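Thread title: Can someone regenerate the structure for this chain?

I was given the following input by a collaborator and told the matching structure tokens would be attached. They weren't. Posting the sequence so someone can regenerate them.
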Amino acid sequence: PPDGSMRQYLDSLRRLRELPVRGLAPGHGAVIRGAVAEIDRVIAHRLLREQKVIDAMRDLKTTTLDVLLPVVYADVPVLMHPVARYSLLAHVLKLQEEGRVLRDGDSWQWAG
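Best answer:
Regenerated them for you:
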């Protein structure tokens, strides 16, 4: 967010993984060789982060993104938290789409 959906992103990566892709040409940086390994790495990273969101939501029950952010991104320098907040929102919105999280204004509640 605001430019995409974590669910659609992960679905796209899974579909891309099934194609005979040898390299990835990102919008910046060098071509990434070993496309399948890189796609697998990114999917695993996103799912690990999502699990951190789930674990924190289960513990906190009801929370805000501001409270959730330092818990879920404790392994990321605080300087990067403003950017990480976008990914956090994307994960929480994905969980909301799945019916696992409920939203009430700025508060998010674990629904299982």
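The helical segments are 6-17, 35-60, 65-72, 81-97.
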